[in-house]
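Chain A, query sequence.
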Amino acid sequence: MKKVLLTALVAGTISVASAQNSAVNSAILNHKNGTLDKALTDIEKATEHKKTKDKAKTWFYRGVILQDMIGNPIYGKQTDEKTPITVLESYNKAVELDGENGEYGKQVPERKQMLYGQVLNQAVEYHNNQDWPNAINKYELAHKISPQDTTAVLYAAYAATADNKYDQAIGFYNELLDMGHKTEDVYKAKVQLQQATEASDEAVMETLANGLKEHPNSVYLMQEELKYYLKNDRADEAMAKLDKAIAADPKNASLYAVKGNLQERKKNFDAAKETYKKAIEVDPTNFDAYYNLGVLEYNQGADVNNKAAKMDYATYQKKGKALEAEAKKHYQAALPYFEKAHEIQPEDKATMQNLVNVYTRLGRKSDAEKISAQLNK
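Chain A, predicted structure.
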């Protein structure tokens, strides 16, 4: 009698387990046939039953079924903003139960990459509609799905900036830097945001210093650093730093261009001109040196012109013409520098506007109109 009862108990146990495994198998079959709503009903039952709730297969297919419902023209309406999170949790549960090299665990990375693409596309859609909070949420989820990928974090920074959430944007840029994504643009954007939020000079200078370690030839970062040196009465320290850098890398035209800019800020215009010319000697295609020389000459001409304009009539009759002639020499000196800068960077609008101004000052109306037409395209 005991033997019979034992056999019946075992038979009953096998029957229950088989029924629950059938729920998983039924979910898989319904998924294969495209009836995702039925597949979901089956798999949710399996996730709650004690015989199948700890099976990697159950959680893997729960993730697969829910993921394939996202964006589906028929079943997509049964999903919501939390569905991708549920999918991710299901895959993570499958790996937890099966290990990374298990039958189902090893299939998870490919599925996660697909999920990353789905969520990123949702983020981009929100982004394009300028729904910044939802875009940021989706970018953050995409990053959670694929922690090594920098794209979602970068675009989250863009979205936060567009939403005027500057502190949040700085956080995203810091995350990018921690991930090793240390491009010049990241440092540049972080500096600009720090300036917009009125961060301390020390904080901004720390970012600039770190950026220059990664991008020692960045003219933008060097020039911004110079601004803070000057602001904090450290011009001599800045000059010493530049001279040391030039001694170590005398063929670096960008260093001369930045040094010329510093000399110009200190009103040492003759020295600035010579330094800019040195930059051109080292690199005949250095845009900044040509452009800055043009600006320096033009501004000197404008200063002389302004003196003549402020004279009373009697004084102008005596000295005005000579001053105007002196100003014209500066405009003529500026012209070839702006023309060369325009040749190097033909799309630069500031250069084109300055060319229009110089041509106008020199009475070259047709040339001014030609450049103005390019500027207004």
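The mean pLDDT is 89. Residues 18 and 51 are 9 Å apart (CA to CA).
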